[in-house]
Design goal:
- 51% of the residues lie in helices and 17% in strands.
- By secondary structure, it is of the alpha/beta class.
- The chain has one domain: Metalloproteases ("zincins"), catalytic domain (Collagenase (Catalytic Domain), 3-Layer(aba) Sandwich), CATH 3.40.390.30.
- It has a 4-stranded mixed sheet with strand order 1-2-4-3.
- α1 packs across α6, α5 crosses α6 and α6 packs across α7.
- The relative contact order is 0.18.
């Protein structure tokens, strides 16, 4: 398991060690044994560039997830593992492999809007990104509701176990 936390923003100081512990606990809760995961905390300008270049959406956004598992599987000429196999990778073949980009400015803004803390929003975005890597989709309303329920449930569990305000 390899989780790397990088912060390329200056809006807020963040406890990267705690964020890594939270992420590792979440991966364990999700029964993910093999992971190559990068979490990048970025400023609005970098997020805007990513959003426009890769998603063709104008402006910044809160979180963008890149799933490399398919690319790695294609490179090795193996089929991409199914979601079920990815979740229980005891055989060592399936690895969750991706990057999650989180915009600190959006976390601060949305925390004010929703009456939460920016730290809680950061953890929410990591949960959201991991759910995407596991195959959750939020493009249609019914799937978005299902994903949001799972996101809320995971965030509640993590907030009971970790002092998110210390992030």
């Amino acid at each position: 398991m390899n989780v790397v936390i990088a912060s390329r923003q200056r809006a807020r100081k963040i406890n990267r060690r705690l964020l890594k512990r939270i992420t590792t606990a979440l991966l364990a809760d999700l029964k993910i044994e093999n992971a190559e995961l990068g979490i990048h905390l970025v400023a609005a300008a970098e997020m805007t560039l990513l959003n426009e270049k890769f998603l063709r959406h104008a402006g910044s956004t809160d979180v963008i997830t890149f799933d490399y598992a398919e690319t790695v599987a294609q490179a090795s000429r193996l089929p991409r593992p199914s979601k079920k196999r990815l979740r229980s990778s005891r055989d060592g073949c399936a690895t969750l492999h991706g990057d999650i980009f989180v915009c600190m400015a959006e976390a601060v803004r949305q925390a004010r809007t929703f009456g939460t803390s920016w730290q809680s929003e950061i953890v929410r975005y990591v949960v959201h990104g991991l759910l995407h890597l596991l195959g959750h989709d939020d493009r249609r309303a019914n799937r978005r509701r299902k994903m949001k329920r799972e996101e809320n449930r995971r965030l509640r569990e993590l907030s009971r176990r970790f002092a998110l305000s210390q992030l």
